[in-house]
From TrEMBL:
ATP binds at K4, S5, T6, L7, R8, R133, I134, G135, Y136, G137, K138, G139, F140, Y141. GO terms for biological process: folic acid-containing compound biosynthetic process; tetrahydrofolate interconversion. Keywords: ATP-binding, Ligase, Magnesium, Metal-binding, Nucleotide-binding. This is 5-formyltetrahydrofolate cyclo-ligase. It comes from Aequorivita viscosa. Its cofactor is Mg(2+). PANTHER family: ATPASE INHIBITOR/5-FORMYLTETRAHYDROFOLATE CYCLO-LIGASE, CHROMOSOME UNDETERMINED SCAFFOLD_24, WHOLE GENOME SHOTGUN SEQUENCE. The keyword Endoplasmic reticulum does not apply. One of its GO terms (molecular function) is metal ion binding. It catalyses: (6S)-5-formyl-5,6,7,8-tetrahydrofolate + ATP = (6R)-5,10-methenyltetrahydrofolate + ADP + phosphate. Its EC number is 6.3.3.2.
């Protein structure tokens, strides 16, 4: 099995080779795939705000869907001292500031507890056929997902197809779904949506 650092390098390089217009097109396809999931009866949706210089999936399209459906959108602010994330309700007047790590974050706002969140869209570099994921290695999302309620749904988004298997720890929280531009993988029921 390939080790995590090799996988991180591989998928960072694959992303690096994507043109900006490809990122837009693929991100829009991912958002359209998301519409096929039976998740739209919930209230609180946690959305990561994309790090543009890392060529992450552009979540603007998902945000438009959530706003169009009048859902409550929750976004995070990273606290590198405590290695935790705080979560805030995204409102029309929420001021965002790009952190030194390139992450758009709320300056302040109404804090939302992880237990309140119904659906989490999870950033990742790579995932496998069992719903394991590898991120940037700081563990922020694993710590956050552990605090969510047992009914919360975790959805990864990826430009790329899964690896067969990737290394994972007992503390890693697996995804319930992962959406790619062409397919959605359902790890709970071991199904694939096209």
């Amino acid at each position: 099995m390939i080790d995590k650092s090799t996988l991180r390098k591989k998928y960072k390089a694959l992303r690096e080779n994507l043109a900006d217009d490809s990122i837009e097109e693929l991100s829009l396809k991912i958002a359209n795939q998301a519409l096929k999931l039976g998740i739209w009866d919930k209230t609180y949706y946690h959305l990561f705000l994309s790090i543009t210089n890392k060529k992450e999936v552009d979540t603007t399209y998902l945000m438009h869907i959530l706003q169009g459906k009048d859902k409550s959108i929750v976004v995070s602010k990273v606290d590198f001292l405590s290695n935790e994330m705080k979560h805030f309700l995204l409102q029309e007047n929420t001021a965002l500031k790009v952190s030194k790590y390139g992450i758009p974050e709320p300056v302040s706002g109404i804090e939302i507890s992880p237990e309140t969140v119904d659906v989490v869209f999870v950033p990742l570099l790579v995932f496998d056929h069992s719903g394991n994921r590898i991120g940037y290695g700081k563990g922020f999302y694993d710590r956050f997902l552990q605090k969510c309620n047992s009914n919360a749904v975790f959805i990864g988004v990826s430009f790329f197809e899964p690896e067969v298997e990737i290394p994972h720890e007992p503390t890693d929280i697996p995804l319930h779904y992962c959406i790619t531009p062409e397919k959605t993988f359902d790890f709970r029921h071991n199904q694939l949506f096209l």
